[in-house]
Amino acid sequence: MQGVDDDETITHNEAVDLLTIGGFERPEAHDLLEQLLLKGYLYEATGGLRITG
């Protein structure tokens, strides 16, 4: 599966695309992304999503 560098930002759509490549259906990918944001594993920065570190 394709990864993302720790200091790189990605858009919501790019994150969903990465999750679908990993085997999730699009609705599941949207839900999973929302859960990752709510639980603090990801956060929204000016340029897009970032992984918390």
List descriptors:
single chain, alpha+beta, 53 residues, globular, two-stranded antiparallel ribbon
Walk me through this protein's architecture.
43% of the residues lie in helices and 15% in strands. It has 2 helices and 2 strands; from the N terminus they run ααββ. The protein has a two-stranded antiparallel sheet. The two termini are 21 Å apart.
DSSP strand content: 15-25%
The radius of gyration is 10 Å
Q: Which structural class fits the helix and strand makeup?
A: alpha+beta
Biggest β-sheet description: 2 strands, antiparallel
Q: Which sequence of SSEs, written as H and E, runs from N to C?
A: HHEE
Strand order of the main beta sheet, please? 1-2
User: Distance between the terminal alpha carbons, to the nearest Å?
Assistant: 21 Å
Task: Give me the number of helical elements.
Answer: 2
- Mean pLDDT across every amino acid position: 85
Helicity range: 40-55%
Low-confidence stretches: none
Shape: globular
Number of strands: 2
Structure summarized in a few sentences:
With 53 residues, the protein is of the alpha+beta class.
Write the layout of secondary structure elements.
Blueprint: H1 12-21, H2 26-38, E1 42-45, E2 48-51
Antiparallel strand pairs: 1-2
